């Protein structure tokens, strides 16, 4: 409670569902935290050398994202950080260099996922560099109270899902250029185990009738997994050298939970039993690089092993509905005609 948000439920029913969703998410979250405690932490044994290759990390200037950037630099990549505040991003790059990481190169391009125009400008700026894209890490996220974006969407829906959806589709040409048979380029969607609690409500996709921040987070994290699987299937069917994966980074001490109702208690717990961001980055980096994953696109990874996703993730009808809905909402729908210009139906776009 305590947040202004749409709901068509009565006060008591709203109170019940708020409490139910809160408890469900955090009791189950505790279960995963326990799992994390008893399972040994896994990571790639050796970082490969990816000299001459390029990666993008959204939200790479804070939290788990910075640690991903560090490891990609250690693999000698050119890393583009998509961040809201380029001055902060540049400061972070300086700090990384000062920490002794001298391989690879890093730069920032402004990206605010709350604005689809910003996503388009980011993609345009990247494509203008003329470089291919080996790894796209869709990492940025928002988990907090109800607010609307400039495009009129609820913020979690747009930042966690729609913005990344649009970004991925716009960058397909660069991903195609980097991939080859036996070494596909990779889209790594950083999702969460709570996607297992999600449910796609197509009748209230924009959350105009009912909104609960925990439900919205679970649902948008599930959308990432469904979309990842849909795109991976399409890439496979179109014989395009790109694979998409979903990754749960672990339960990690970051500011993601700053708006959580019991933030201080949670942080105390995470300080004792949660992973630091450096460990949180390990499964993401494993998914970006691991050779043993090749040919397993569409899988969900946690602690460097496959996990079973929410069953909706593999439902072809749900995948298709989500794809169509997302194309419409991000205004990619008319661009199917572009398939007459290039044989690849994914190269849909008129970036403006
Ligand atoms: N921490 C966990 O326990 C946990 C568990 C499961 C999954 N995850 C997932 O791991 C990923 C990283 O989370 P984290 O824990 O590192 O969170 P975090 O510390 O809160 O970092 C979130 C990142 O997202 C960026 N971001 C937020 N809104 C944005 C926007 N409108 N446009 C562009 N970037 C935006 C932030 O950039 P600014 O610096 O500009 O705010 C920041 O870099 C997320 O996808 C999250 O869902 C985390």
From TrEMBL:
The keyword Hydrolase does not apply. Keywords: Membrane, Oxidoreductase, Transmembrane, Transmembrane helix. SUPFAM superfamilies: NAD(P)-binding Rossmann-fold domains. InterPro entries: NAD(P)-bd_dom_sf, SDR_fam. The chain crosses the membrane at residues 15-34, 157-176. The keyword Acyltransferase does not apply. One of its GO terms (molecular function) is oxidoreductase activity. Gene3D superfamilies: NAD(P)-binding Rossmann-like Domain (3.40.50.720). Pfam families: adh_short. PANTHER family: PHOSPHATIDYLINOSITOL-GLYCAN BIOSYNTHESIS CLASS F PROTEIN, PHOSPHATIDYLINOSITOL-GLYCAN BIOSYNTHESIS CLASS F PROTEIN-RELATED. This is Retinol dehydrogenase 11. The lineage of its organism: Eukaryota, Metazoa, Ecdysozoa, Arthropoda, Hexapoda.
């Amino acid at each position: 409670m305590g947040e202004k948000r749409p709901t068509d439920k009565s006060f008591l029913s709203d109170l019940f569902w708020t409490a139910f969703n809160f408890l469900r998410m955090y009791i189950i979250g505790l279960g995963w935290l326990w799992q994390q405690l008893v399972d040994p932490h896994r990571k790639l044994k050796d970082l490969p050398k990816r000299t001459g290759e390029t990666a993008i990390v959204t939200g790479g200037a804070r939290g788990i994202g910075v640690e991903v950037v560090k490891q990609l630099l250690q693999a000698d990549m050119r890393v583009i950080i998509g961040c809201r505040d380029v001055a902060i991003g540049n400061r972070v790059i300086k700090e990384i260099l000062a920490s002794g990481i001298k391989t690879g190169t890093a730069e920032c391009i402004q990206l605010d996922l709350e604005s689809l125009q910003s996503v388009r400008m980011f993609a345009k700026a990247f494509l203008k560099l003329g470089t291919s894209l080996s790894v796209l890490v869709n990492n940025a996220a928002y988990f907090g109270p109800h607010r609307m974006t400039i495009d009129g969407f609820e913020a979690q829906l747009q930042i966690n899902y729609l913005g990344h959806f649009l970004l991925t589709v716009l960058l397909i040409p660069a991903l195609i250029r980097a991939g080859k048979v036996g070494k596909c380029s990779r889209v790594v969607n950083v999702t969460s185990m709570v996607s297992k609690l999600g449910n796609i409500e197509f009748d209230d996709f924009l959350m105009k009738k009912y909104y609960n921040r925990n439900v919205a987070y679970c649902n948008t994290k599930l959308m990432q997994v469904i979309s990842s699987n849909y795109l991976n299937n399409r890439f496979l069917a179109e014989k395009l050298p790109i694979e998409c994966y979903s990754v749960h980074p672990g339960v990690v001490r970051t500011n993601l939970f700053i708006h959580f109702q019991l933030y201080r208690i949670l942080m105390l717990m995470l300080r004792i039993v949660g992973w630091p961001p450096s460990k949180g980055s390990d499964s993401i980096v494993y998914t970006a690089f691991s050779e043993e994953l090749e040919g397993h696109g569409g899988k969900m990874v946690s602690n460097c092993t496959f996990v079973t996703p929410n069953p909706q993730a593999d439902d072809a009808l749900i995948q298709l509905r989500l794809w169509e809905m997302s194309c419409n909402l991000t205004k990619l729908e008319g661009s199917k005609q572009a398939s007459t210009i290039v044989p690849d139906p994914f190269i849909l776009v008129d970036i403006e």
